[in-house]
Amino acid sequence: MPRTSKRQRAQRTGEYFLAAGLSILFLLLLWAVWGIAQKEEIARNAVDERRTELAVLQERKAIFEDNLAELSTERGQEATLRQNHGVARTGEEVIIVVPSKENELDPHIPWHKRLMGWFGIW
């Protein structure tokens, strides 16, 4: 068995320390990259949520602008008052529309369905 000199043992020990240090450095860099990747994913999700929220707000803005355009005319103001508050102009009366009897369903139920209904089957 060949003997190793002190110098070779010191050199080998130094190489082990260097390998251990590089391994620790590699793990620290890996940890940092992992943290950056997680933060990037959080930021990407936040951007997607904000885009969705922006689309909803733009849709609401369009609705409000349409309502504002409608309310800027006298006819639109009158229609809104009539619809929301049930007001009428002076001299207007209520019209009640009664459906015709032709549209009513035939209430006649066949005898066999009445018999099953009496037993609780139908």
Walk me through this protein's architecture.
The protein is mainly alpha-helical. The termini are far apart. The protein is built from three helices and no strands. 70% of the residues lie in helices and 0% in strands. It has one domain.
Describe the structure using short key phrases.
122 residues, mainly alpha, 3 helices, 0% strand, elongated
* Count, helices: 3
Structural class: mainly alpha
Mean pLDDT: 87
What's the number of structural domains?
1
Largest sheet: none
How much of the polypeptide forms β-strand, as a percent range? under 5%
What order do the SSEs take from the amino end to the carboxyl end, as H and E?
HHH
Rg measurement, Å: 42 Å
**What is the helix content?**
over 70%
How many beta-strand elements?
A: 0
Distance between the termini: 101 Å
Unreliable sequence segments: none
Dominant shape: elongated
Q: How would you sum up this structure in a few lines?
A:
With 122 residues, the chain is mainly α.
Write the layout of secondary structure elements.
Layout lengths: L5 H66 L2 H12 L25 H8 L4
